[in-house]
Amino acid sequence: MFNIERWQEIFEAISKNRLRTFLTGISVASGIFILVILLGAGKGLQNGIEKQFENDAEGIIEVWSNVTTKGYKGLNPGREIQLRNSDYDLPVMKFNDEINKKSPVRSTWGGIISYGKESGNYQFRGISPDYLSLENATIINGRFINNSDMVNNEKVVAIGLKVKQDLFKEQDPIGKEILVNNINFKVVGVFTDPSGEREESRVYMPITTNQRAFGAGDKINAMQFVLNKKVDYDQALAQSKRFAEGIKELLKSKNIVAPDDDSAIGVYNSVEDAKQFYDLNLYIRLFFWWVGICTIIAGVVGVSNIMLIIVKERTKEIGIRKALGASPFSIISMILHESIFITTIAGFVGLLASLLLLEFVGPMVQSEYFRNPEVDFSVALTTLALLVFAGAMAGFFPAYRAAKIKPIVALRDE
């Protein structure tokens, strides 16, 4: 029940020791403030990492070729491995049931692309229809490359938003023809990419048309895959590792590469990278929780010491209360009320200050791996529970000591 006299006592005790109460509150508020800021920073790291993995499809596996570093079966090291359509067909046939999205890639850097009087230096790629999903890109006008374009070797392209803005300005590019290294292609679509201008400065065309128009035969530079989703992360990681090793073995065997030559065939597995990043992020957040809680404990110890001093100062008063019939519970309740009140008010001030800082300053702090530091509602509730618990713990032991004081001893206290 609400006891007006109890609260009057608390406020009177606080008013008599304003500086002591203020400094005690500062220690608690700073603990909560540091904890919430650290947790917000941990969330900012997580947001940054997630943003990086949004740039491409989830769980992408990319394969490319390089130069051999070891001799094998009479062949000298330093031999350049050239991937071809048949290299792409091998894993597609063997792992077809596991593959969700796939595309061969043939890239040309520094292609001259022009429309009318406008021209620029852009990268163009031969790809398959699945590549839109692999890059996590979005068509905003027209369409992307389709299977019909592939079969019929159509001279069509989908251009990035940056290319559209540079070459066409405010015009609608759909249906218009551009020159790609002096060969005519019709624009059928415009796309955006979450990675920004670098990816939006590309031009995509059917891989079959690319190879035929630019005399590449059956050559490709790389291949990309996304596997079927698994129920949990561990299964997905095991599947991706098995697939990566399997494709390496296939390509090494076909291209006569030593089994222990890890440089000739390169494989990038984003599932493995995701685990490393998320594990690192987990450890950082756990460390932040540890530092923050230790800071709160330091503040609580300070509150507890202050409450012990208050009990010492009020020993005679407590003895009189007990002599007049006050129960141990009422003595404990009196001390606990003051302790919880101080820590809760101070904690709320620290919590509010940290949330305001994250709200107004957080969005201004942006980098590649750190975005929008924030604290969600569940974390705020957790810190609130910590406040109440900390206040109770800070006051309990002094309160228990006060309740154990014998009236006769208290009345003799000077």
From TrEMBL:
It comes from the Bacteria. InterPro entries: ABC3_permease_C (IPR003838), MacB_PCD (IPR025857), Macrolide_Exporter_MacB (IPR050250). GO terms for molecular function: ATP binding. Residues 21-239 form the MacB-like periplasmic core domain. Residues 292-407 form the ABC3 transporter permease C-terminal domain. It comes from Flavobacterium frigidimaris. The chain crosses the membrane at residues 21-42, 287-311, 331-357, 377-397. It is found in: Cell membrane. Belongs to the ABC-4 integral membrane protein family. PANTHER family: ABC TRANSPORTER PERMEASE YTRF (PTHR30572:SF4), MEMBRANE COMPONENT OF TRANSPORTER-RELATED (PTHR30572). This is ABC transporter ATP-binding protein. Keywords: ATP-binding, Cell membrane, Membrane, Nucleotide-binding, Transmembrane, Transmembrane helix. Its main location: membrane. It is a multi-pass membrane protein.
